[in-house]
Amino acid sequence: MYSAVYNQEADNNMVDLRANYDVIVVGGGNAALCAAISAAEAGARTLILEGAPKAYRGGNSRHTRNFRCMHGEPMAVLTDSYSEQEYFEDLMKVTQGKTDENLAKLAIRSSEECYAWMVEHGVRFQPSLSGTLSLSRTNAFFMGGGKALVNAYYRTAQNLGVDVLYEAQVTHLEREGDRIVSIDVTYQGEQHRLSPRAVVVSSGGFQADVDWLADAWGPAAKNFLIRGTPYNRGVVLKDLIGQELESVGDPTQCHAVAIDGRAPKFDGGIVTRLDCVPFSVVVNKEGQRFYDEGEDVWPKRYAIWGRLVAAQPDQVGYVIIDSKSLELFMPSVFPPIKADTLEELAGKLDLPTVQLQETIDGFNQACTEGHFHPTELDGLATQGLTPPKSNWARPIDTPPYYGYTLRTGVTFTYLGLKVDESAQVQGRTGPIENLWAAGEIMAGSILGQGYLAGFGMTIGTVFGRIAGREAARYASN
């Protein structure tokens, strides 16, 4: 069934689904927008199919605030330098080598030129935020956050003549041999079949499909919170993997962080993350510590805590701090639970009082004298304690005391489509000649595990631009 439907992006502009689009981009976040803009600038007639309503457009990009950028010298809001080698070493550390090195280095090298491109297309930046995510040397922060970036890109796309259809649910890409011949999309209860010359899929991971998460993780996943968009359910990913396109990544690997246990099930975003772990003692529901809270600087290690909490009883943890540390981190959207004594705090958190007191007493006794520096590795470590606290170890002894509950907050999953350096999707017998992928749907090629702050936006920007350019080139031939 074909029809002309109203385009909610611009008044009096009709999206004619009978039109012969050169490039259709599936998805509406950062990677999709970079692809659509690049395709349009290369002369392709381009359509974005965004599954979310306009108010929720942008996928997980709405919740971002920075991207990680290589640079050889100070530039704009970035201080000092951040070399390709250091960037790569940082990535190898968090992924423990589980990455496609060629794609990783391509993303890293290309990130430097992305900064100017982003500015040219409407993105504005601000100096790095202070606190435990102070990244003035490595990461550029968006003025107004991810929502402002998304809005800027949509304005640019509209000015370039890109058509946008919201609440357009892509259900199937029809493959014949090594080509995609059509796209099935549901819009306002009607089925449409489109036949573009080229397709870019940038529709995210499958994290909002909790049943799929549970298939991978087991029943524990039912207790996870999904800090990103509820619209990334992996429909396109599952459809393409089912058609024997090459997949990459482990379905149990994901960007999972520790977030406030009071966050909503979906779409809580970045404000629900807790940055206080380095200055705290973290215990499970039995009142026992289970990992080194001060292992490394927070931007490199914060993403491990979602998985750590997932492994605890009932998938819950508890942060305990005292008044000395309350102002050292970016606050959550929820205020901490406050108490004048540890006994009172244990009661409010429903923790075993005796065990919590023993844990804190043991930690305090293991703390040593030394210089405390909240924004860098200070070597202020415990002695004779298992697990140790390697940095920022100060006694929890100054009332009032504060606590937060921790839950696993999944941002995006790493199971995705295998691509080459041109972002072209690979089939079992070779590349799919008119299909490209960018963003979370292919990030598992580079992120085998772990995460670096801001790197997801780097992957989306770099490969979105490549995918859009390559799709337009194919469509013109």
Automatic annotation (TrEMBL):
Q: Name one GO molecular function term.
A: oxidoreductase activity
Is the Oxidoreductase keyword given for this protein? Answer: yes
The cofactor named in the record is:
FAD
Q: Keyword annotations for this protein?
A: FAD, Flavoprotein, Oxidoreductase
Q: Name one Pfam family in it.
A: FAD_binding_2
- Domain (FAD-dependent oxidoreductase 2 FAD-binding): give its ranges: 22-448
The cross-references to PANTHER family, in alphabetical order and at most eight, read:
FAD-DEPENDENT OXIDOREDUCTASE 2 FAD BINDING DOMAIN-CONTAINING PROTEIN (PTHR43400:SF7), FUMARATE REDUCTASE (PTHR43400)
Q: What is this protein called?
A: TcuA: flavoprotein used to oxidize tricarballylate to cis-aconitate
Report the source organism.
Answer: Marinobacterium lacunae
